């Protein structure tokens, strides 16, 4: 199957279409000729979130008209420091939606479902890196626990509804379009700090190691993964795969790359935070599942930093991003 045309004309619903990954996945699929639908889900309102998901799925199935369809679940408002109650409410909404979809006896056999999970959240307490899909999950925070719960719901949707699912455990995503209101996105935050001159607080050790994956590369993996699912898993089954660059960099190394791009030292403020307890020191990944999906040319860290910086500068000039 040629991935250049894979997914052409297949209707795809993107949940979280305005987020970093969801917007990139939508652009990638549209470039391949797919019909992309977007779900706007009021996650803060449990009573409205589930009907919104129902309406979006119904629209997708109508667009498919009995043929194949795809669902890319890229939503997720939480980060490591998000309160447990907020994360549990999101999981509860998803669980109720899956209950109702399966309770209605919907035939999902023609569907391919992708869920964006977090490799860092899932493996944070797993011991010695690098981690693979064979590593036993060991979250250190409510965020990681919530991701595992979401994975279980999507697997249940596939198993009992007859769909195929890809659970993508993503490494640290970065790139144009990151939501800077969240306490995440080191590269985007460093670039904004360089552009605005506002000091950036760093709350973990500079030798903390992460795997940074440019969002456009991740979107390509998601699109290829959805297209290739029928050749990898049978209907009613799920594949769990780490989506990562499989190249690691310490925070100190990232700071050095940002310094080279901007040709000046970023204004950093080192401090302590109680949320650091949920952060692992070393999160390197080696995927051993579906290796064909990793065979692509990835964006280098300097090129990704430069693209992120240009996007941020454009938004700041337009007055679309505040200084803090």
Protein architecture, described:
The chain has helices spanning 20-31, 46-64, 84-103, 119-123, 142-161, 186-196, 215-228, 251-262, 301-317; strands at 12-15, 36-39, 69-73, 111-118, 164-170, 172-174, 200-202, 209-214, 238-243, 248-250, 268-270. Strand 1 (12-15), helix 1 (20-31) and strand 2 (36-39) form a beta-alpha-beta unit. Helix 6 packs parallel to helix 8 (251-262), helix 6 (186-196) crosses helix 9 and helix 8 packs across helix 9 (301-317). Helix content is 40%, strand content 16%. Residues 1-6 have low confidence and may be disordered. The longest helix is centred in the first third of the chain and has 20 residues, at 84-103. The strands form 3 sheets. Strands 2-1-3-4-5-9 form a 6-stranded parallel beta sheet, with helices on both faces.
